Amino acid sequence: MSAEEAFSPQSSLGYQVNHLARLLAAALRERIEPLGVVPGQFAQLLVLYEQDGLTQGELCARVHVEQPTMANTLARMQRDGLIDRVPDPHDKRRSLVMLTARARALRGDLVAAARAVNATATRGLGTAEATVLMSTINAAITNLSSDTDHLAHPPDHP
């Protein structure tokens, strides 16, 4: 068997996880778009549901996206009536991202939509299998995050 044959999309973790992510996003989109929310806004909303009033930089760190991407997403969310930006009372140079009443009212429906997508994705798996799946995914994320951090911040060489 040649190297090309041994590495197919079906045997590639990256390909399979990417395919799964696209399917999850499409299923989520189908459920939340009627509410005026798109999957690209969902992670920000979840983080703000946990802690409202974060800065754009804090959101970037928690959602793991770059500043330009976050700026575009927040502009759309503000346009869509999901967030407001208010001056930080402790540092007038910064703005805090605050959920609107509309966004807070959507929380139950958005969480229900995500739970429904997750239930569909794990249909047929027992609780133990679903737990192992999440643990395995979290381990892979941790492995790649630490590897990427190492590559982004190599040690100084004398």
Automatic annotation (TrEMBL):
Organism field: Janibacter alittae
Pfam families recorded: MarR_2
HTH marR-type domain boundaries: 10-142
Name of the featured protein: MarR family winged helix-turn-helix transcriptional regulator
Presence of the UniProt keyword Transcription regulation in the record: yes
Keyword annotations from UniProtKB, A to Z: DNA-binding, Transcription, Transcription regulation
Domain of life: Bacteria
Lineage: Bacteria, Bacillati, Actinomycetota, Actinomycetes, Micrococcales
